[in-house]
Amino acid sequence: MTTEAVWRGGSLGDHAHAVLAPNPGPMTLDGTNTWVLHVPGDDCAVVVDPGPLHEGHLQAVLRYVEEHGARVVLTLITHWHHDHTESLERWGQLVDAPVRGGGYGRTLVDEERIDLESLRIRVLATPGHTADSVSFHLPDADVLVTGDTVLGRGTTVVAHPDGALGPYLASLDRLHAVATERPTALAPAHGPTHTDAGAIIAAYRQHRLERLDQVRAALAAGDVDAPDVAQAVVERVYADVPRNVWPAAKASVEAQLAYLAV
């Protein structure tokens, strides 16, 4: 399910290329992947998640687009988090193209089709990590751009109250169904790509259910009776997780407790 290989960005087939932003960290892994979607020979390109406000990164994205004889005609956002959207004001000064998603521009609609020259994009509502999370399916390239719903390494955070476990599990089921119709590759917002998205998504779901069982067991054991139940559960269930990510783990536990109606 995980890999420790260093990820520096790169292409996934002919239609998707990740430009890695220089914002590594416990939550962003190697950094934010800004995805450029472009069919060779076409004039238009779509950029997904311009990322943090870093001039060098934005220029690298534009340079990749220009080197491939294209121009940015649309910017898509997978969700509102700042490591995906912080640069939008500056990006708008560099690129004359509409922005959609994450609360910007015209709302993305589930099952909407975006057709730009030879590029076809299918919009999938995949709430859970955040309420507004969306993924993008490239049916002609067999690629799933999943934002933070499925990462390329480790697991994502479902942070209560914006994140919710019930919708998240349903989103994983939906993505798995898409990814197993045909062999499909994973293009995450953080971490490396994978050629078998279906396997990664299945492992994600299994891990989430295992964590949920651990929370149930901790509650049943009766030793987490404390003023802060979520923190007590974190200390028991997430003892194997570095303490610098315990705040995120606690937010996930709060989502698990809400799912269990505790």
TrEMBL record:
Span of domain Metallo-beta-lactamase: 31-190
UniProt-listed SMART domains: Lactamase_B
Gene3D superfamilies: Ribonuclease Z/Hydroxyacylglutathione hydrolase-like (3.60.15.10), Winged helix-like DNA-binding domain superfamily/Winged helix DNA-binding domain (1.10.10.10)
Pfam families, sorted: Lactamase_B, WHD_BLACT
Domain of life from the UniProt record: Bacteria
SUPFAM superfamilies: Metallo-hydrolase/oxidoreductase (SSF56281)
CDD domains tied to this protein: metallo-hydrolase-like_MBL-fold (cd16278)
PANTHER family given in the database record: ENDORIBONUCLEASE LACTB2 (PTHR23131)
Entry protein name: MBL fold metallo-hydrolase
